[in-house]
Amino acid sequence: MRYASSYLNRKTYPMYKDFKRYVLQACLKELKQNGGWDIGLEEKKTSRKVISVVFTIPRTEVKPKAVKKVENQLLSHLREQQ
């Protein structure tokens, strides 16, 4: 999955590091603790600037409906922040 930074709310999280800490890492930690998901996070950068985020979800442990559900939850959370 790839999501452009247009989903980020610059007023709530003006700094990417805050968004990463309070939203991305918190969500990934909760998914790992409560659901057993081991979702990877890779930042694509130009120099030091993060231009996109890639989530890696292992295929062997995830059912298609579950993937869609997590994707919808992440998008919903990002839209609520706007």
Could you give the topology of this structure?
Layout: E1 2-4, H1 16-35, E2 40-46, E3 49-56, H2 64-80
Antiparallel strand pairs: 1-3, 2-3
Briefly, what is this?
By secondary structure, the protein is α+β, with helices and mostly antiparallel strands. Helix content is 45%, strand content 22%.
Your description of this structure?
- The protein has one domain (about 1-80): Arc Repressor Mutant, subunit A (Orthogonal Bundle), CATH 1.10.10.
- The longest helix has 20 residues, at about 15-35.
- It has helices spanning about 15-35, 65-80, and strands at about 1-5, 40-45, 50-55.
- It is globular.
- It has a three-stranded antiparallel β-sheet, with no helix packed on it.
- The protein is of the alpha+beta class and about 80 residues long.
- The chain has two helices and three strands, in the order E-H-E-E-H.
- It starts with a strand and ends with a helix.
Mean pLDDT: 77
Number of domains: 1
Reported for the largest beta sheet, the result is: 3 strands, antiparallel
Rg over alpha carbons: 13 Å
Based on the coordinates given, report the CATH architecture: Orthogonal Bundle
Approximate helicity band: 40-55%
Low-confidence stretches: none
The proportion of strand residues reads 15-25%
| Helix run count | 2
What distance separates the N and C termini? Answer: 20 Å
Order of helices and strands: EHEEH
User: Largest sheet, order of strands side by side?
Assistant: 1-3-2
CATH topology: Arc Repressor Mutant, subunit A
Oligomer description: single chain
User: Which CATH class applies here?
Assistant: Mainly Alpha
